[in-house]
Design a protein that fits this description.
four-stranded antiparallel β-sheet; 5 helices; homotetramer
């Protein structure tokens, strides 16, 4: 009896374990295309960033890329700079390409700095504030957000609101 | 008599007022960056196109551009082709750049055709099916939608669902 | 006794389960940078593809990209075409961007075909044979290989040798 | 006496023979596509650079180009920055294009410097530390190595390990 019930339990646990593994596996590799952040998370980030921008009475372009630095979702708020479409996307890419806030890179890329003119790599980086990596609860980078449309300080505040929404 | 003519006058004034509002509204929208379709409409188009794709059990990249052919909103459904990010955006741009379905342009761009290799203009067009202009109720082009991720037939069906959502 | 031993067992299983989850999680997300195939697998693919090329007495450029379509490893065999460096890399990217052999895409991109001139997207695709997606044992795409240097038939045979090495 | 002079002659002939082989070898290598460093040497440089990086507990992208500044071999260590793929390759190219360490060029390309914004040439140079030319025993440049993924100081140390491996 002891053995049988223990056996049943371990079988059940093993089965649960296997199912969990499968779920985990698919949720991490993300159905073959999107790697890292998924669309639900990305739209949540956009929504919270947009709310923050509205609260600040400003208009932003907001982009989210996945762990492969490929675009997942994007919005341009009505009246936001057209020139900031490309900047928001490049900020998100830059933050993921180097797994750090874009302005940290920018601090190193100034004339005389260690990474002077790094912006010319990767078909164009944007290294001023407004791009932030997005981490999962385990601390791994799953993507990044890029915001452009106002002062770099405000861009960064709005990007942070997007990051916080995914945590 | 007085009342009737006053009533007519006020009706005329109200009409003029409404028309002025419309003009003002469109001129304001143009002045501020986003021309034509606004973000609410664009997100509505994305949402309906996404629903259609889910119903068809397929995964799409969906992009909406405004009357200036500049990106307003974009989503990549989980597992959709990474290579279709660029194609969806280019389909939307192409549809607005020439105010016609992308495949109508494609019919003219074949070897021997009137517009052979037009794809090389504008930093790259996509001229197969899946890009459609979006009109307002007055029949004016206010933007376009581009869809990529499945057969061109399915891409076009999903794009049409987005167009219909804005009408 | 029954409860205690069962309790211990389930605790142990739970612990194993948690550890496995952690391991799986890190192996799938790949230490934050490389998504999908890792360097050991990529170098194995290169090595087997190179051996196949040597056996066929030909000289190849061979590239492996990860699930984000970003380069992981590359070799150019001595005397292989210099012009094929870019082609091998683009074949690998194309195979991952659309999760199919490059020549399947090429069959659809001919004049009159459904995807005519798709090569102009994504900053340049290569759609003739020699690019193949790489799957893990669960059937998920974890990257792709691209081979260029000989006839497209031979390119594809060498690419297949690389794919087989990762299974 | 006879033996000694015969011995000298054969030694001289052997030396000439060896030198001819070397010349032939290098002219053959040039004739066939890869100029300068060959794949065996390039992989040796990668391997030693990778070992150095592991010893320093860091993750690098490492690229080797030949005397024609064309890519011979590349690896991205698991977890290394995705954005450093392009930078490592550009550092290697830059080091060969001007036959000097990338940071020597960078010292001249600052605002007010003799080569201000030289980075805009050749489809993008990287002029901070981490790119080094590779010489043969005769002191001729046979290629270059580029390393990116950590501080520029560490990038350069790892690049030097690659250079030393080929000597």
């Amino acid at each position: 009896m002891i053995n049988r019930s223990t056996g049943k339990l371990s079988k059940t646990l093993a089965r649960l374990f296997f199912i969990s593994l499968m779920c985990l596996s698919s949720s991490l590799v993300f159905a073959e295309g999107s790697v890292g952040i998924d669309l639900v998370q990305a739209e949540r980030a956009l929504k919270f960033a947009e709310k923050e921008a509205s609260k600040m009475n400003t208009k932003m372009n907001i982009a989210v890329v996945d762990a492969g630095a490929n675009l997942v979702a994007f919005i341009r708020m009505d009246g936001a700079f057209i020139g900031s479409i490309d900047i928001a996307i490049k900020k998100a890419k830059t933050a993921r390409l180097f797994d750090m806030p874009t302005d940290e890179l920018g601090a190193l890329s100034q004339p005389g700095g260690d990474l002077y003119n790094i912006e010319l790599s990767n078909e164009g980086l944007i290294t001023f504030a407004g791009g932030l990596p997005i981490h999962n609860s385990a601390g791994e980078v799953i993507g990044a957000i890029g915001v452009s449309g106002d002062t770099v300080e405000n861009d960064k505040i709005v990007a942070q609101a997007g990051v916080d929404a995914v945590k």
